[in-house]
Design goal:
Distance between the termini: 23 Å
Order of helices and strands: HEHHEEH
Mean pLDDT: 92
Strand content: 15-25%
Shape: globular
Structural class: alpha+beta
């Protein structure tokens, strides 16, 4: 029997969560991972986040710049772009609709 692959579901939702974090403030990758873990995404690691950040940056949804770090080498900081803010609003609307539908289905089954 095949078990459910949570990674596909997670990947799509993480984009929206990353954008929400960046809409609050500019930050670097490790801090994004830490925030996601604090919110309950315990399985998320840097190896999951950096490809998503690169994809979002390639789409023009976020931007990045290197800044000095007090702890060693420069860090790459990420910011949400104006297009990213629009993308985030669209994600939130879609998420509300999809989660409402899914919750409705599972309430009926229970």
């Amino acid at each position: 029997m095949r078990m459910f692959d949570k990674s596909q579901l997670l990947r799509g939702t993480l984009e929206g969560c990353i954008l929400k974090i960046l809409s609050d403030h500019t930050t670097y990758g490790y801090e994004i991972v830490t925030k996601l873990q604090e919110y309950g995404f315990e399985e998320v690691r840097e190896g999951t986040i950096y490809p998503l950040l690169l994809r979002l940056e390639n789409k023009g949804i976020i931007s990045s710049q290197f800044r000095p770090s007090p702890l060693g080498p420069r860090r790459k900081y990420y910011s949400i772009t104006p297009d990213g803010l629009l993308y985030l609003e669209e994600f939130k609307r879609s998420w509300k609709q999809i989660s409402k539908s899914i919750n409705h289905i599972f309430e009926i089954e229970e």
